[in-house]
Write a structure and sequence with these properties.
27% helix; 249 residues; four-stranded parallel β-sheet; 3 domains; elongated; Ubiquitin-like (UB roll); alpha/beta; 12 strands; five-stranded mixed β-sheet
Length: 249
């Protein structure tokens, strides 16, 4: 069983046992263990890893760990472009779409509010999340590290915050989504793209006070829900502006 030296950086330490955090440590693995296998056996989901340096050289998850090797494992870099070094994934996702697990319904609705295609079902199970992520090239959002370790999940984000508003801020910041946001373009209920609709076509479905006060409406072609810029919209607008800043305008 080869013994190698490991060092994990920044937030990846949150997944490690306390005695292994923010320090180098030795760990023994099987003779055929890959870097991915060892990293996940230590508790770190592979989706949280952006760069692996094996004896100073950037390698992929399939690199074999040998006796005496030294591995440095890094999360996403915020201020440094390391694109030329990356080896852990074949390619980035061309279109950023999400699938949230059954415990992140509030976050899913807020991501839709910001304009990000996000699948969610409060009865969805991990195997279904994995299949959707693989078939539709979606980023998995979860607080379950075991889900992120499934072989079919290539892109994922472990959500640390507990409250949906804080979760939205975390995901937007970690994945640098502010410039890609398209607020108020998706149905919060079913994730379909909203379409403008004439007031005359929905007038009979509106409360009297809404008929009097508003002239602009949008509707979901799937669930037929109608949206207008009322007090709820104004509260949501304030939330979006606070998270995305001027780019949401």
């Amino acid at each position: 069983m080869p013994t190698a030296t490991y060092r994990f950086y920044e937030e990846l330490n949150d997944f490690l046992a306390p005695a292994r955090r923010r320090r180098s440590f030795s760990y023994s693995s099987s003779d055929t263990a890959s870097a991915k296998h060892v990293i996940e056996s230590l508790g770190v989901p592979h989706t949280e890893v952006e760069l692996i340096l094996l004896n100073g050289a950037s390698v992929g998850f399939d690199a074999q760990v040998r006796e005496g090797d030294r591995l440095a494992v890094y999360p996403k870099f915020e201020a440094l472009d390391i694109t030329p070094l990356l080896r852990v994934r074949e390619r980035p996702l061309r279109r950023l779409r999400f699938v949230a697990d059954a415990h992140l319904g509030g976050l899913a609705r807020l991501l839709r509010l910001a304009g990000f295609d996000t699948l969610y079902d409060n009865a969805i199970h991990d195997a279904r999340v994995e299949r959707l992520a693989q078939a539709e090239h979606r980023v998995v959002l979860t607080r379950d590290r075991d889900l992120l370790m499934r072989s079919g999940v290539t892109h994922g984000c472990y959500v640390r915050a507990l409250h949906p508003h804080a979760q939205l801020r975390e995901v937007i910041a970690r994945l640098d989504l502010a410039r890609s946001a398209r607020p108020f373009t998706l149905c919060l209920n079913c994730n379909a793209r909203l379409m403008p609709i004439a007031k005359s076509e929905v007038e009979e479905r509106l409360p009297p006070q809404v008929r009097r006060a508003h002239d602009r409406f949008a509707t979901c072609p799937m669930c037929r829900r109608v949206y207008w810029e009322g007090s709820h919209w104004q509260r949501m607008r304030a939330l979006v502006d606070s998270v995305l800043g001027a780019r949401a305008a």
